[in-house]
Predict the structure.
Amino acid sequence: MNIFEDIKLAGIDKNGEEKEYVLADLAGTIVLYFYPKDNTPGCTQEACDFRDNFNRLTSKATVIGVSPDSIKSHQKFQKDHELNFILLSDPEHVLSEKFGTWQEKSMYGKKYMGINRSTFIIKDGLITKAWKDVKVKGHVDEVIESL
């Protein structure tokens, strides 16, 4: 069974064009990474690390970033940082909940729901490797090594 089932999400392609993605139709190996918010320091660093290592990754996999941000926010994020991969918008947390990345978090004693920074390698609709509570520094190299 394909982990994506019948999930469809709006997103932008590597050129910033909006389109709907039927995730079960994505073929080959996918690096699916979940991040909390566009244009925040950690998320920007992670996206730029994927961007800077794009040639090392694309020979092995398709890179897709996912956050609850809007298409408009993704387009600005992509343009500001010259990102060269797909970004999906998951405002209803459909994909995030499916992958267990939409979780209760805590900051300064306040609890709230948000994305747990996580990355998955998916081959033929099956998760073959997962990282939870990702620390940005050095993470893309770990992903490349696992591919």
Remarks:
- The radius of gyration is 14 Å.
- The mean pLDDT is 93.
